[in-house]
Every structure is written in C-alpha cells, then in structure tokens.
C-alpha cells in the first residue's frame, strides 16, 4: 500500500505557496466566516474537483460531492440527509444565490446505473440504492435511444441525470420559492473531460450547449 506522503508534501507546498500568498483572504475567512455565493453539487470522482476546475479560492464555493452528483427528491430528503442537509445549509444558512449541479463524462456511477446489475453484496446494494435516484434518467435514455452502444447511452444518461437532479431540487418548497422569487438560480453543467470543455443545459433548446469551449477552439 502506498503511503500518504504525497499529500503531506502537498500540504507543505500549500502552506508555503497558496497560504503564503493569500494570508489576507484566510485571515478574513477566519475572522468573518464563509460567505460563498454558490453551491456546487459534484461527483466524488477524483478527476472532477470543483475548486480545481473553476480555479476558485477558499470561501467562493460551498461543495457537496456524492456518487454521480445526484440530488434526492424532497420526499426522500431525510433518507439521504448527508446530501440534503448540506443543500439546506447552503440555501437556508449561507443564502447562496446559485446552485450548480455538475455532471461529467466517464462517470462510473452513471455507468453502474446503466448496467443495472443485481447487487450481490451489501456494498453494491448501498450504491444501487443511491443510484436509484436517477432511475428515471436511465429509463428515459433507454426509451429515447434504443439499440445505441453503451458509450452513447452512458453519455446521454450522465446529462439526463443532471436534469433529474435539477428537477428534484425544485421539489423542495424552500428552493422553488426562492427560484420563483428570483433569489436563486439553478444551473446544470457538464464537464466533458475528454474534450476539456464545459457545457451548460439550456432550457430553451432542451440540450447541453458549450459554455466554455475547448482551449484549442478558443486559441484557434
Ligand atoms: Zn461521476
């Protein structure tokens, strides 16, 4: 088993570089507490670190990460309280103005959902129960894209699951009320890892469109 020294030397570099350069920001965050303007709901996947992807500073973004960046519906809120309590805290206590659900390409959780294997141990049961939140996305994709290869289905389901989570967010009365009053905006983002670009769901077209293009396209 490899040791954790990589992380310890990383923390040392963080102290020397980032903390050294941003001590005013940290002093302010310690004295005044956090006041992030956005909640990001992202996947646990080690390749999708929200702060790294958005080049954020500490204090900018409140983050909840779970398998496949899912939001349980309001009726199941207490059942999946780890995620829903973080959402409640961000909206009720921190009064964030934006909620971003960020899905991504090659999501292992969504792949497992699409495979729909019968769980054969307790660990798989736990994962399957959680992924069941996005069962509507799986069904929708199978209906809309019959006979398509697994890759295409997984890609479509990664995006469809983001829409399920956005819909589920609106099932919380204290979220839908803020959205209708214009105090809160919901966003569906998709990190296309192979292409290195960011997409956003556009309700007008009903599809995900490029929000920040691939770097090669920007630089020509
Ligand atoms: Zn994922």
Describe the model.
This protein has 220 residues and is an alpha/beta fold. It has two domains: 1-33, no CATH class; 34-219, Carbonic anhydrase (Beta-carbonic Anhydrase, Chain A). The chain is 48% helix and 18% strand. It is built from ten helices and six strands. The chain has helices at 5-21, 23-32, 50-54, 81-93, 108-115, 122-131, 135-144, 150-169, 173-180, 215-219; strands spanning 38-43, 61-66, 98-104, 185-192, 197-202, 207-212. Strands 2-1-3-4-5-6 form a six-stranded mixed β-sheet, covered by helices on one side. Helix 3 links the parallel strand 1 (38-43) and strand 2. Helix 7 packs across helix 8 (150-169). The chain starts with a helix and ends with a helix. The mean pLDDT is 96. Zinc ion is lined by residues 43, 45, 68, 104, 107-109.
Strand content: 15-25%
- Please give the radius of gyration in angstroms: 19 Å
Give the tally of structural domains: 2
Q: Could you give the order of the helices and strands?
A: HHEHEHEHHHHHEEEH
- Residue windows where pLDDT falls under 50 for at least 5 positions: none
Helix content: 40-55%
CATH class descriptor name of the largest domain: Alpha Beta
- Biggest sheet: strand arrangement: 2-1-3-4-5-6
Write down the overall mean pLDDT: 96
CATH arch. level architecture of the largest domain:
3-Layer(aba) Sandwich
Work out the number of β strands: 6
User: Termini, distance in Å?
Assistant: 44 Å
Q: Can you tell me the CATH topology of the largest domain?
A: Beta-carbonic Anhydrase, Chain A
What is the SS-derived class? alpha/beta
Number of helices: 10
* Shape estimate: globular
Q: What's the name of the CATH homologous superfamily of the largest domain?
A: Carbonic anhydrase
Q: Main beta sheet: strand number and arrangement?
A: 6 strands, mixed
| Ions and ligands | zinc ion
């Amino acid at each position: 088993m490899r040791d954790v020294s990589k992380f310890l030397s990383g923390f040392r570099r963080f102290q020397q570089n980032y903390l050294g350069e941003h001590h005013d920001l940290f002093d302010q965050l310690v004295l005044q507490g956090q006041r992030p303007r956005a909640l990001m709901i992202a996947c646990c996947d080690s390749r999708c670190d929200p702060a790294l992807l958005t080049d954020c500073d500490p204090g900018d973004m409140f983050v909840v990460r779970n398998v496949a960046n899912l939001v349980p519906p309001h009726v199941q809120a207490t059942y999946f309280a780890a995620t829903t309590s973080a959402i409640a805290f961000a909206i009720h206590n921190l009064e964030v103005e934006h909620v971003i659900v960020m899905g991504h390409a090659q999501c292992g959780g969504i792949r497992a959902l699409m495979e729909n294997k019968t769980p054969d141990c307790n660990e798989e049961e736990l994962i399957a129960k959680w992924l069941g939140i996005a069962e509507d996305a799986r069904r929708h994709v199978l209906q809309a894209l019959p006979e398509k290869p697994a890759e295409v289905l997984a890609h479509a389901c990664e995006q469809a699951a983001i829409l399920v989570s956005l819909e589920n967010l609106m099932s919380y009365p204290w979220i839908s009320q803020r959205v209708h009053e214009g105090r809160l905006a919901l966003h569906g983002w998709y990190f296309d890892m192979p292409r290195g670009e960011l997409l956003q769901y556009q309700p007008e077209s009903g599809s995900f469109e490029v929000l920040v293009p691939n770097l090669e396209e920007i630089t020509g």
